[in-house]
């Protein structure tokens, strides 16, 4: 049981086991848990919702602040771009194009006009750079995109033909982020360009200004109320940080910022906000804002620790209050549970001991509350329980005695029923038997069923000897069973229904009985109407004398009575049957028997494709014997012939007195020759008879025999009989004392 | 008229790509498999002498040891250029700076076209001299171009097509050359005379080459001071693994005020092998080519002064050649565009980024590199709603199965689709020297198998890879052959013009359209774009229309961007190109490294 429980425990999920443990825990524990849950769940919900809502509110407040900063920076950038365009416009005034730009486009560099224009224009470019501090380079491109003049001399001759700002600059003033114009670097962030028109209004050069990143850096580095950890910077579409960081120098700065929000912003050209780790790996709250003019993302962010500091403080205070309140509630819960659970635990302890049998115990009543009332009621209930239990115990003892009697009676009844059933079975078996032999064959198994645990044997009387012959035995070795019982056996003596031997009191003759073998024997005669039919012999196992006399002996008597009656009936039936089919003079079968058996016999021969011989035998001159020597002498002749026929018959042959001095013999499986030979042998045996009557020897007699064979001479008994009769007739007329086959053979007397 | 326009040195792209230029170093890849690191062979009098070391810059030779180190003929295919040859000696006429986006003149001053752009005039910079003191002038340019016109088979892949475009070339004066083209070409200067990826057309000194057989001349004779070029360095000595150059203090650029003399007095390019001990292999290097992230982490651990383009993940600079899954559109059943789209939907690009590239790159939404100028064009596609119509980056195996089943394929007991007796199978070739592309092919095969396509990844050695790729004997390949556009879309689009298509078995030229995709409408739009100047806004609608066709047919599938994790050591030299100091792009084995060399500054100037 323990193993099964352990196995069940291991197969039960952990949480179910915990739940079961909890369910079976003491009231004190469960009360405590219930109080704790009642306190902690609401407190937890309140704290979590406060944290969640607090964070939501705090985050939204910070994001709103960041949005404000982004809008401010966006406006500053827009103003800066406007300033770039304005100053680029002013670097070459329209009226200067003809004498400052066109000479560069139309003359070779070694011409004075070119050099003059180049010098003048360079001065203007450099002055603009020096006075505005807005650009780091200003360039003049021809229509092929080649740099005609640059404030960086080493850039002259470079070709910008692949750049959008050049192509757009040929059309109209434009601005482009270099982050979208170069491949992967962190270059000067912005380029502005504008066309330089000739007098016909046709753009024949492009003025390009590469903006100084310093101003953009300045805009981004302005604190703008983002605290000690906040900053703003620009990120290109290649995800490189394009402006300086407040916290890192250029040499060490990790310049790539590729987060999911910024990828979305770059892809969708939108504005997003969220929590993430920034390029320094710090957790921040930030706003990404797409700048369509620059194709850059403006990032404003602040470390979460600082941004949410006030939120954190409020939350901490709220949580502390909630924790203190929770602790107080827990202490109160503990004391309440204690005051309820301890008296209950005492009551449970006493109740457990009472349940174990100690009904003299009483529960102390400590208070007048529900628990005290429960204890007093419990004590009253215990007293009543004691009285009820005493009464019950008395009743139980009486019931137990009655039950024992009932069981014993039931056992008797059951045994009687079983015995009666076995006897009925035996009776039914005997009723179904058609002959004594069959009865004796079927009796033994029934006796074995009837006398369970006993060994035994059954003997029968024989008409020929005074001894009893063994019919059968059960449950004992064949060597221990006598085949016959001598007439001197004490059990066969008349006036002695049964003989019982026991170890010390067995009759003297029984002591020498070969089957005694030191075990008690019960031998019971089978008799009815004073006639002995047999003996039932039992070897009794270990059984007390009372059982023997009260149970076994009555059963044996009833059994032997039943057997004797049934065997007597069968014996009588067999005797009557013999009388019906036998001729009383000769003891041979009579004509009735033949009529009832030959039809089936012929049918069997037919099915077996065999033959059957029929002899019709008639004593020659029998009338003469009757007439001379009297009917008694005739009867003696008939008995003598009958004896010959019976003696000469094989097992399956059927000799029969057909009527008067005629006899008929059926020879199954006999063909022509066999029938002839057998008939002739009978003829000779009869002819050799010496028949005595009244002290004299009667004259020898002869017989004539007609033969017929199935199927050659007929397929029915009547046909065969007729054929044989005709053959007999032929034998008679041929001189008698001969055998004559129907229609064919006549064997003369030798 | 079909004109063979071979825009970029794709052979060299291939070479460079496989050797570190576009993603990895086969030599390093092999070395990674080797357990032992091999130290470079460097002069001890330099590496053991602090003063000399401060005057020297040591670069790695990304593509390994040089088989014919004595070959200095730049027209010879065995003359390795990345051994410092074109970084320090051969100077270009122009250079496209990826970072500033402008074409920087170098030996030339300018190149201008007539109105219809079929006559281009090249003006050389005055004062340029060869390293032997001879003047560099228009005669050298005309001589070199005519030499090439006389021997067009000498045309190298990174300026392939030049001889088809040039009808004749004329010397106008000492500094002026005029090119008469076979047709208008607004990109003539950019494509043939400007360094883009790898290198550009080289001008040869006529006074040396005049009577030489260009096929046999090695251009190497130390007694005569050969090889002679215009660069600020001359050859000092070499071995198959190490090449040493010394500064020519008479370099023309310093004398004419083009640029000051570069600070390094000596340049060394050397081959290394990174194995179990990265310090042994990389200790003396100032520059280390593209390496895997794990190798870089190991290098960073032992060389604290190492810097990269970005100083945090993904560290790398994006290469202009993104990676593709090219599908042979002549090979049934993959000639059906729906099946190619099914393959696309079956792909999980993020898994490729994560597992093949260690997260150092990003998934592609176009075959362009994610350079901002090109992103502008990709955004046009978004604005036009093409990515809603063709969700290229969508990973949807269920949809892939639906498409395949709609084509009449049924899933068999083997777990793969079958139609009649034919099983839906796809063999994906990858170059054996690329760990990343091999891994990509394996991942894609697994992803395709998951949707019922019996895909297998197969590795090919370089020779086989080129043969299968050019002749079209493949079903699918991992490659980068949409490479070409840097700041405008036409160059990459033109590579899939139907004019390049050849029957299977006939090699395509210059790896153009090896997927053999023929679409007249697309090709017509590309031709219209070709007739417009660079950056012309009229290109934009044409591009969107062409991409609509391309996305519908999807002849090849963009996979991921390609990263270049190049590192520099700031112990001795500083002012290397980084994202915060992006004066030029960082590949140190391209000819654009000239700009890097001129920007280098010693950390501790020697007395």
Describe this entry's structure for a reader.
- The complex is a heterodimer of chains A (750) and B (607).
- Chain A has 750 residues and is an alpha+beta fold.
- Chain A folds into three domains: 62-307, Beta-Lactamase; 432-562, 2-Layer Sandwich (Beta-Lactamase); 582-747, Alpha-Beta Plaits (2-Layer Sandwich).
- Chain A is built from 19 helices and 23 strands.
- In chain A, helix 3 runs antiparallel to helix 10 (309-355).
- Among the domains of chain B are: 10-60 and 233-314 and 566-602, D-Maltodextrin-Binding Protein, domain 2 (3-Layer(aba) Sandwich), CATH 3.40.190; 323-561, Dipeptide-binding Protein, domain 3, CATH 3.10.105.10.
- In chain B, helix 13 packs antiparallel against helix 17 and helix 14 runs antiparallel to helix 18.
- The N and C termini of chain B lie far apart (63 Å).
- The model of chain B is unreliable at 1-35 (pLDDT under 50).
- Classes of the chains: A alpha+beta (750), B alpha+beta (607).
List keywords for this structure.
heterodimer, A: Beta-Lactamase, Alpha-Beta Plaits, 3 domains, six-stranded antiparallel beta sheet, six-stranded mixed beta sheet, 23 strands, disordered C terminus, B: alpha+beta, D-Maltodextrin-Binding Protein, domain 2, Dipeptide-binding Protein, domain 3, four-stranded mixed beta sheet, disordered N terminus
